[in-house]
Amino acid sequence: MNKTCLIIGGGMGGLFTGAFLAKNSVKVTVLEKNEIIGGGLQCFQRKGKIFETGMHVLGGFHPGGNLRKICSYLGILDKLKIQHIPDDCMDEIYYHKTGEVFHIASGRKGFVDSLAAYFPKERANLKRYIDELYRITNEVSRFSLREETSFLQVHSENFRMAADKLIASYIDDPKLRDVLAYLNPFYSGIKGLTPAYVHALLSVLYINGASRFESGSQQLAQALQDVIELNGGQVILGCNVTQVDVKDRCVTHVLTADGNKYTADFFVSSLHPTVLAGIITPGTFRPGFVNRLNSLPDTASAFSVYIDLKEKAFPYIDHTCYYNEDFGQIWQQENEPIETWPRAFMYMTPPDADQTQYASRLLVHCLMDFKEVERWKNTITGHRGEDYEVWKKQRVEAILAKLSLVHPEINEAVANIYSASPLTIRDFYGTRRGSIFGYRKDCDNMFEAILPVYTKVKNLYLTGQNLILHGNCGVPLTALSTAEAVLGRNLINEINDHDETDC
C-alpha cells in the first residue's frame, strides 16, 4: 500500500494491529505511553525472576488453533516459547468447605469424561451441554477464522441467553453447574447478565487446549514489535498522546506530552474509548455517543499477588488451580465484601525454561471491584500513602491465609512478595477503573457494549478489548478486523492458507 499508520497504544491490540498492517506493506508507528510495551503482556523482573502481569493462560496455540495460525502467518510462531498444559488435567478446582477437588481434562471428549467421572448421572447432559457450547461458538465465524460480513448478525436464543441460565438449562446437579462456570475469573461473569456466548467462547478456547508461556508473556509483545520494525515501522516508548486533531472528518495529526507532532495516512486507537473521546477534537463524536461510552459499565478489576519462592520449597504445578470457599458463589466474585474477600481465586506456578519438580514463582489472581481502592484514585504509583500500603499488606495476608488451607507449606516457601491492585492495573494498562476485560457485555442489551472498529472519522479506526471480544484470543481477532478495515481487504484466507511449517 505504501501508506503510513499511527497506532495510539502499544498494548496487545495495538501491537497485533500494527503487525498485521506492517506485514501488508503499511509503515507503522506505535506510540506507547509506558516505558515497556505489551499492556496485559507486560512482565516485570524482581531479583532475576520474571513475573507476568496479565497473560497467564493461553488458548488457541494447539495445532489448528486460531492464535497458532495467526502467529504462524505473522512469522513469529517459532519465536514463542510455549508449553502446553497436559491434556489429562488442564485445571484443578478445589472447594474448601466440602474438600472436593475436580480435575478437568482438555479435549471435547476428555472434558466430558473427566467431569462425568464425578457426576456419572450427568454424562448425557454434559455431552449435550458441550455440543451446545461448540454450536454457539460456531456462530462467531471469526473465532474459527471463517469469513463473516459482520459480528452484528442474527444469533440464536441460546447465544443471547444469560450464561448461568444456559448451564442450568442443560445440567441438573447444582454442584456441576457451579463447576462448569469455573472460568469466571477470565471474563468476570455476573448471574443473569453475562451472555452465554462469552462463557462459550472462553470455555471452548481452553477445552481445545490450554498453554502457558515459558519465561513470561513479554516475548509475544517483543515478537510483534519485531514484525513492525523489520517491515520499516517503529515503536516509540514513553510517548503519551494528549491530543488527536480532526479536521473535515479526518485526523490530521496527534500531539504528545513531550510536544511532538505525528502525522499519518491512517490512525488506530487502542485506548479505552472514553480516553480517546477525552483527547480528540471536541465535537468529533456526537454527544449521545460519548454519553453512551461513559455510561457503559466496565468489567471487574483484580488484585494480584506475585510470590518469589525459595529454592526447592514449593512443588511445580503443571496446570491452573482454582480455589473456592464453597459452592454457590461463582457468580459473585467481584462483589465480595472485603471482610470475607477472597472467597475464590486462581493461582498457578509459571514454567521456567529449565523447569524442575520445584516452582520458582507463584501468582494468585483475584477479582476485585474498583470501589475498594476508590479512596486512592487520585494518587499515582509509588505515592499512594502509608494507609494504602497497609491495606495492600492486609489483602496479601488474606490471600495467603486462604492459600495455606490448600498448601500449608506456602508460608515457609515465600522469599519475597509483590502485589498489584486495581489502581496498578488502571495506571499501567490505561483502562478505566482498572477493568481487565473491557466493557461488560449484557445479555439483555447484546450489542450496546459492542463497538465497531470503524468511526465517523474517515481515517480513524479502533482496536482493543473494549470493542468486540476480549482476552488473549479476542483482542488479536479484533485487531485482525481493524487491520482488514484499514487495508480494505480480507486476510482470513491468507492466514488459513499459510503453512505453519513456513515459520
Can you summarize this structure?
Helix content is 32%, strand content 20%. It has 16 helices and 20 strands.
Supply database-style keywords.
503 residues, 32% helix, seven-stranded mixed β-sheet, alpha/beta, 20% strand, five-stranded parallel β-sheet
What this model shows, in words?
This protein is globular. The longest helix has 21 residues. Strands 8-7-16-17-18-15-19 form a 7-stranded mixed β-sheet. The protein has 503 residues and is of the alpha/beta class. The mean pLDDT is 93.
Give the strand tally: 20
Mean pLDDT: 93
What's the shape?
A: globular
Main sheet, how many strands, which sense, barrel?
7 strands, mixed
**Low-pLDDT stretches:** none
Strand fraction equals: 15-25%
Blueprint (SSEs and pairs):
Blueprint: E1 3-8, H1 12-23, E2 26-31, E3 43-46, E4 49-52, E5 58-59, H2 66-74, E6 82-84, E7 91-95, E8 100-104, H3 108-116, H4 123-138, H5 157-160, H6 163-170, H7 174-180, H8 196-207, E9 210-213, H9 218-230, E10 234-236, E11 241-247, E12 250-256, E13 261-262, E14 266-269, H10 273-279, H11 287-295, E15 301-309, E16 320-324, E17 344-348, E18 361-368, H12 386-406, H13 410-413, E19 414-420, H14 422-429, E20 460-462, H15 471-487, H16 492-497
Helix pairs in contact: 1-9, 1-15, 3-4, 4-8, 6-8
